[in-house]
């Protein structure tokens, strides 16, 4: 029976294993979490569990640190990259999922000369 591929969002690595896999210190991972750069899953007991996606994000953080950015700048870059990815995904959505919008103005319900009924004037 084939083993299913692990979900990229599922937290499976403890903090020390995650730190070893990305070549960072455990304290750095805690700092990045405290600064809001990533949010690993937590077990019921409160133990951090890092996913494959978290490891990719940590590697990206390391790349940006090497490029000379500070943690505040890295947070901004990661947010913008996330927004960019979301917009690209929305743009590539199949046509049948897209919501059709029109540029025409909404029709008025005010009576016009063509639909007014003439009333007899009291006299």
Q: What would a concise description of this structure say?
A:
The chain has about 120 residues and is mainly α. It is about 45% helix and about 5% strand.
Keywords for this structure?
mainly alpha
Topology:
Blueprint: H1 15-22, H2 26-34, E1 41-42, E2 48-49, H3 52-66, H4 71-91
Antiparallel strand pairs: 1-2
Assign the CATH class of one domain.
Mainly Alpha
Strand neighbour order, sheet with most strands:
1-2
- CATH fold title of one domain: Multidrug-efflux Transporter Regulator, Chain: A, Domain 2
Helix content: 40-55%
CATH architecture of one domain: Orthogonal Bundle
What composes the largest sheet?
Answer: 2 strands, antiparallel
Give your account of this protein's structure.
The protein is mostly helical. It has a domain at 15-95: Orthogonal Bundle (Multidrug-efflux Transporter Regulator, Chain: A, Domain 2), CATH 1.10.1660. It has helices at residues 15-22, 26-34, 52-66, 71-91, and strands at residues 41-42, 48-49. The chain has a two-stranded antiparallel sheet. The model has no long low-confidence stretch (mean pLDDT 84).
């Amino acid at each position: 029976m084939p083993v299913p591929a692990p979900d990229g969002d599922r937290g499976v690595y403890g903090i020390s294993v995650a730190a070893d896999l990305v070549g960072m210190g455990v304290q750095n991972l805690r700092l990045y979490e405290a600064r809001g750069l990533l949010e690993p899953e937590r077990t019921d007991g409160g133990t951090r569990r890092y996913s494959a996606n978290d490891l990719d994000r940590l590697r990206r953080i390391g790349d940006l640190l090497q490029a000379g950015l500070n943690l505040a700048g890295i947070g901004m870059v990661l947010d913008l990259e996330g927004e960019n990815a979301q917009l690209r995904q929305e743009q590539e959505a199949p046509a049948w999922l897209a919501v059709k919008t029109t540029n025409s103005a909404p029709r008025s319900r005010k009576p016009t000369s063509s639909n007014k009924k003439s009333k007899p004037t009291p006299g």
